[in-house]
Amino acid sequence: MTGQTSSAPRRVLSISSRDNALIQLIRKLSQDATAYRKLGQVWLEGDHLGLAARERGRCLGRAVIAESVWLGEHGRAQTADPHAIHLTQLACRADEVVVVPDALWRHFSGLDTPARIGFLTSLVSIHSDHSGASSGVRPGVPTVVLDRVQDAGNVGSILRTAAAMGVRQVLALKGTAALWSAKVLRAGMGAHFGLHLVEQALPDDLVALQLACVATSLQTPHTLTSLTLPTPCAWVFGHEGQGVAPEVLARCEWQVRIPQPGGEESLNVAAAAAICLYESMRQGAHGRP
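Above: the chain's sequence. Below: its structure in token form.
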């Protein structure tokens, strides 16, 4: 190993075959959005996700790093490449480092330009916030409920906005894009690690929130800015084309619409969520951190 690091992994391995079981596992997690549920493993590609997880006290597990980074770009000393030093030091914070040839990254990476570092860790360890609280629905916690929101980019963006606006929990009803899929993780930009996430929920689970539920709807006369929102509350955002399902809408004590003087029929769900969560934060619905 070249370069200086602040710590050292317990073990360093080298893998060069695309048929290796570990490489096949990462490929599966990169390409199959729901594979993590069966395999119990999560693939975090890129240093940003690794840093975000580390900063929230999550275990990085196993680091996978490109050979050119680990050994030094084109054989040069790592002191000549600050980014390589950064990636190597981050990798060393994992329990194990796996070094793979750069050419092999394109076999399993989900990015057009591979990030050259990623982390493979257990779903349990990366999901847990070590608070000792139940992994199920937490009552009385400012929440976003996703009702069959299917686009991974929208889901990740909503998670990112939710975390930024002080929401602490996201409840994803069945039919919503898999929260820990590679695409949602990338769009979330690390927001996952600041939220309590519950997947595969049912409409009946909304009762466990013990909160007033607020849904967006085009059919209500009540506009977002004309109401004093409940504090705290659970915001419900629905399917991109169909909106919130009638059975879920029936469980919402409040329905609001976003004023659209420009005359458009509706907003993208991620944009609508950003507006609603900001207004909720502005009114003090989520309190202070």
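Residues 269-282 form the longest helix (14 residues).
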